[in-house]
Write a structure and sequence with these properties.
The protein has 350 residues and is mostly beta strands. It contains three helices and 26 strands. The strands form eight sheets. It has a five-stranded antiparallel beta sheet with strand order 10-11-18-13-14. The protein is globular and about 50 Å long. 52% of the residues are buried.
Length: 350
Amino acid sequence: MAYTTINKSSDYFNTKLFTGNGSAGHAITGVGFQPDWVWIKNRASGNHRITDAVRGVTKEIYSDLTNAETTNSIGLTAFGTDGFTVGSSNDYNANNGNIASWNWKAGTTSGQATNSYSTITPTSISFNQTNGFSIIKYTGNATAGAGVPHGLGVAPKMVMVKNLDSSSYGWYCYHASLGATKSLYLHNTDAVVTSNDRWNGWVPDATNVSLGTNHGVNGGSNNIIMYCFAEKTGYSKFGSYTGNGNSDGPFVNLGFRPAFVLGKRTDNAGGWWMSDNKRSNGFNLNNDYVLADSSNAEQDDGSFASDFLSNGFKCRATNGNFNANGGTYIYMAFAEAPLVGTNNIPATAR
């Protein structure tokens, strides 16, 4: 029996590592699809750069900063059928630099999407119900209970929002395991925050994400970007775990071998760690990490060491930001391969 309808996860998400050449027009291929969301980090140092097809090439925001959207003509300059093209910016293409990119596929970009229950009509949206990912750009109205249609057909489990016009408001994150009165800031290490002014105290449904009056998510007349993720069996999972403070740490059952995991401690301060199946050469221990809230260089000091297994990941470090005894953590994970798919190819640990 089929476990998932997505047999080739790399058709929708893929990590692509490349070496920069410092020159404009450097085409990066091998992603496997035309990406709609590209997250890039110079592994030596530099801010995280986030671009997407909805806002358009050269438009960047930063996961580790509250800065408003800026135009960078020497950053990401084109989306291609098998990747993207970068300019001469050191953060995208330092000469001989080791660069990591994480790439997601959304859908066909349209001018708008709405429904009878929505009070905000997106100015542009790209959504893909197969892999459960959408990108929505909209104008806030500062009205409590305003609904933004996400296009996924099922309730998203994680939502990331950034006000594009203001540096006064950072990133606001909803995660289903925390509930509708809680939020996290992607740009810093803060513990979970309780407030109704983000999601209006309403859990996202199959149609809309509800907003409060916080200007970071719903500033009147402000341009705002939202990334929504729904869970798809065998391809993506958004959950939580409790640490045990032991190097024989908790096992997190995903139902697939992970290609990428982003995690964060919620009951206390702690950085947003990012691990993938490429930067540690695809073998356990999976030791290389960057922090989404920091411009620091990539590290392999064991602070976030884990084993990527055929059906999930196992914590192998005692760092409090990753596996404190009794600590609570959220994660979002995407698959390298499902445990069982309709192509009957089993996943294996390495």
